[in-house]
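To: structure desk
From: M.T.
Subject: fold request, one chain
Message: Could you run this one when you get a chance? Sequence is below, nothing fancy, just the single chain.
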Amino acid sequence: MNSMHEVDYQIHGNETQFVEIELDPMEAVVAESGAMMFMDDGVAMNTILGDGSQQHSGFMGALLGAGKRLLMHESLFMTVYQNQSATKRRIAFGAPIPGRIIPVSLRDLGGELITQKESFLCAAKGVTIDIAFQKKLGTGFFGGEGFILERLKGEGLVFIYAGGALYERTLAPGEVLKIDTGCITAFQPSVDYDIQFVGGIKNTLFGGEGLFFATLRGPGKIWLQSLPFSRLAGRVIAAAPQTGRGDREEGSVLGGLGRLIDGDNRR
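Reply: Done. Structure tokens follow.
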């Protein structure tokens, strides 16, 4: 198994951010395909099946890891960037949406982190990017993220991103927080993830928050985002020309009726 690479970094920007990583000779980072912003001469790029952690040996092992990525609706391939020069080199990765890039040391969290499927940006070479199945049937169907989340394992540094503003909180044992399902960015595996019915006919039909809340029960640390990409995309679609326009009332089962009530019945 590859040794964990230690990397130095600096995060730039405010509303939109990118992370600049300094690589010592032969150090490497792994990232989603298309995330790279710039890199110094001397950094070599290698596209691979899976995450390159070599948790599984041989072609079939790499194919298995790549197949798991398909379940997360990610590319089969990831890219490894290695400094093959004799001096320090820099590389940068940009977040795909406005928000915050979050550096997380897996060593400080006990070696594991659960994230949304699309929250991972890049990591030190040696971190395993795997899937985490939701064992509870209700959570899988109604939890917003489906049955599959992303599991980051190792001792190195990982970079995830949150849309909009970032909220960090450490839940005490038994402490419960109700959350919009799309606002969860990441949490420690010690945190129990479940769903809860909103309740009430008016809340369900007209509340605009969907049928279910996500619930996170401590102990453990959580990271939330104020602007999930799905919400941002919904607002863009709502403001687009009428062809293919979606419902404005996010999460409401009566979005079409809502348009009639507020007079927005243009087709």
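Reply (cont.): The domain at 8-164 is CATH 3.60.160.10 (Double-stranded beta-helix). Let me know if you need anything else for the meeting.
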